[in-house]
Amino acid sequence: MNPDILNTILGCLGGLLFCLGWVWLNKTEDDEVLASHINDLQTKKVDTDTHATDLAAIEADITALETMQNHKARAYRSGTQSNIPNETLTKVLFNAETYDPNGDFDADGVDSRYIAPVSGWYLIHGQVSWLAYGEVGLWELYIWAPGLFTRSVTRTTNVAEEFFSLSISDILYVEAGQAITLDAKQTTGTANPGIQGTENGTFLAIHRLSI
């Protein structure tokens, strides 16, 4: 074979091998770059998923806190509750509400109780306006959660010609599901005394302070 032709062929083969080598090296680098990008994207996806999970947990916590802040209610007596029996502890029958965002107060005029949605410390304030009719005797007001704690009580012997108010406040630990009521008692010897029903006269307000 002509030496010139052979040299030409060998030169072409050398160039071809160089090109193939260069392509292979660059392909390897591209593969490595691509793999690195894929790893970065996967890492970012994991981070995004984690952040999304964290965000969902935060939003759930915020919702729970907002719900906890709404553990409150205020009910009142609309209209007179007449003929409170003598020497008989009698539930104040609340039949209207000022506010009750979670629907925890059963102000139906019969059950008339607040059901604690969660266990915790509650501020409880109640008031009754008595239609005294001038009777002389002992007038009492109780906060009561049956079976949970001893009744909180306030009492007086004050008598007015038309009416007077008796109020009571306490901070108590209440278990979830426990019912809280306001109960009144009079010992005048007659069943005539009644409770005056007004939003600002006879009411029970309850706010949860902490778990």
- Derived structural class: alpha+beta
Helix content: 25-40%
Low-confidence sequence ranges? none
State the end-to-end distance: 100 Å
Strand segment tally: 12
Biggest β-sheet description: 6 strands, antiparallel
CATH class of the largest domain: Mainly Beta
CATH architecture title of the largest domain = Sandwich
Domain count: the total is 2
**CATH-defined fold name of the largest domain:** Jelly Rolls
CA-based gyration radius: 40 Å
**Helix segment count?**
1
SSE string, helices as H and strands as E: HEEEEEEEEEEEE
Determine the mean pLDDT.
80
Strand content: 25-35%
Shape: rod-shaped
Structure description:
- With 211 residues, this protein is of the alpha+beta class.
- The protein has two domains: 1-69; 72-210, Jelly Rolls.
- The protein is 32% helix and 34% strand.
- It contains one helix and twelve strands.
- It has one helix spanning 3-69; strands at 72-76, 90-91, 96-99, 105-106, 113-115, 120-131, 138-144, 152-156, 163-174, 179-187, 194-195, 203-210.
- The strands form two sheets. Strands 1, 3, 6, 9, 11 and 12 form a six-stranded antiparallel β-sheet that branches.
- A hairpin with a 7-residue loop joins strand 7 (138-144) and strand 8.
- It starts with a helix and ends with a strand.
